[in-house]
Structure formats: C-alpha cells, structure tokens
Write a structure and sequence with these properties.
By secondary structure, this protein is α/β, with parallel strands linked by helices. The protein is built from ten helices and eight strands. An eight-stranded mixed beta sheet has the order 3-2-1-4-7-6-8-5, with helices on both faces. The chain is globular and about 70 Å long. The N and C termini lie far apart (65 Å).
C-alpha cells in the first residue's frame, strides 16, 4: 500500500478539494493520508481531521524538511508526495504505480507525466529519467521509496529544487527515477510576486547545485532593456491585433444573428 503525504500551510480550500476527491475516488488504494502542516491559521487542520488524516506539525519549514518529516511519519514502504494543489488523475493511478514498483525493486522514485514535453522525453528515454537535475522528481506529485529515502534524506537547507537534488543524488548511487504514464492536475495560481520569488529561489538553488555563476550585470541589464523596448512592445501590438480580430468576429456574428432573426 501507499501512504500519502501532503504539505500544507493555510490552503484550506485547496486541501478540502484534494481530500474530497482522493477519499471518494481512491478510497481503497492508499493506507493513510498525512498532512504536514506549517501551523496554519485557517481551518486546514479541521478539514484534515474531517477526512481522517493524520496531522504532523512543522514549525521551521523548508520543502526538504517537510518532505522528510512526512516520509518519516509514514507507515508504508511507498510514499506519494502531494501538494495541496495537485490531484492524481485516473482510477488506475495508484494501481499502475504499484505495478511499476513491483516490476523493478531498484526504483527510488516516480515522476508522473505532467506535460507534452515530459511525455516526449519519457518515450524517447524508455520512461527512465536520465538527467535528474533537469527532469527529476516533481515533489508536487511524486512517489518515494522509503527504503531508499532512509539512506538518502532530502536536503533541508535548499530553498528550492530539493526534489531535483534528491533525484540526482540517488541516481548517482545506482538507483532509478522513472517517468510513469500517469498524470495529475496542478492548479496553483501564484501572484506576480509569488512567481518572481519562486524564480529567485529556484535559480539560486540551481546555481548552487550546478556550481554555476549567475548572469553578469551587462547581461541582466541587456535582457531587461530588450524585454522593455522590444519583447513587451511586440506583445502589446500582438494583443491589439487580437482585439481587433475579435471585434471583427463579434460584428460578423451580430450581423449573422440579425439576418437569421429577420428571416
């Protein structure tokens, strides 16, 4: 069986959504649901308890620490990591996951297909992840082998891409990360500030792992001016063109509607 671990902080609405679906669609496919809660101030904990989840509190949050705490608490060999904004899709999601794990004892983790680019790469590589720093696990929805995790815990210091770093580490130690032909919906909506913060954290973490210097001042300012003066201007005129074409289509629809009404 599989334990489900969901990281959460003040995501009551999303948590209600995912738990209602999981408990209705997959009620016989998992052993337990563990909510790793970063001391939410909304009613997340009440919702978790309503769906018979086990709640583990985590004060000093990092993504890696939340994953480690959740896996540590799990009672099964296999643990499905989920974000409160990620929902497995398909009635055979868990069954096919277990079938893949049974067929190969060397699997450390499973990445689920989440884009057409991911799918094409998976087909090309026979569903094996060959470049884990680029295409390793997505912790929003990923399966972890707890026995492998016991040897290789997630990095608790990284501010981001802890899933890719872990993938790279276990692959270098002769375990496998595989792509599985199952999927999930990921429906998070971030603000502009949220997306910028994510970009910042992921870039810093990636540069640390790859021992890579960030862009020079000249390149940074050059990119900024290019976007301001050219790319954004191009997008503006493309948007204007779309609006004029849409206006034309609406006028034509109106004419045809009036013509049919008069007949």
């Amino acid at each position: 069986m599989i334990s489900i671990v969901i990281r959460n902080k003040n995501e009551a609405k999303a948590l209600e959504n995912i738990l209602s679906i999981i408990t209705n669609v997959y009620s016989g496919d998992y052993k337990e649901i563990i909510i790793v809660d970063n001391y939410s101030t909304d009613n997340s904990v009440e919702i978790a308890l309503k769906y018979n989840c086990r709640v583990v509190n985590l004060k000093d949050f990092t993504y890696g620490r939340a994953i480690n705490v959740g896996i540590e608490a799990a009672i099964t060999k296999y643990v499905l990591l989920l974000s409160a904004h990620a929902i497995p899709v398909g009635t055979s999601f868990f069954k096919n996951t277990l079938a893949a794990l049974t067929a190969n004892e060397n699997i450390a983790g499973i990445r689920y297909i989440n884009s057409i680019e991911n799918y094409k790469r998976a087909v090309k590589n026979n569903f094996k992840v060959l470049e884990p720093l680029d295409s390793g696990l997505m912790a929003a929805c990923a399966l972890i082998n707890k026995e492998v995790w016991a040897q290789f815990k997630f990095n608790e210091e990284l501010v981001a891409i802890e899933d890719k770093e872990w993938s790279d580490r276990v692959v270098k130690n002769d375990f496998q990360i595989i792509d599985l032909n199952e999927t999930y919906f990921y429906f998070i909506k971030r603000t502009v500030k949220g997306n910028i913060a994510r970009y910042k954290n992921e870039t810093i973490a990636s540069n640390v792992l790859r021992q890579k210097e960030f862009l020079s001042t000249t390149v940074i300012w050059g990119s900024f001016l290019k976007n301001i003066l050219f790319a954004n201007t191009k997008k503006y005129f493309e948007s204007m063109n779309r609006e004029f074409l849409l206006l034309k289509a609406k006028i034509e629809i109106q004419k045809q509607s009036k013509k049919k009404a008069s007949n």
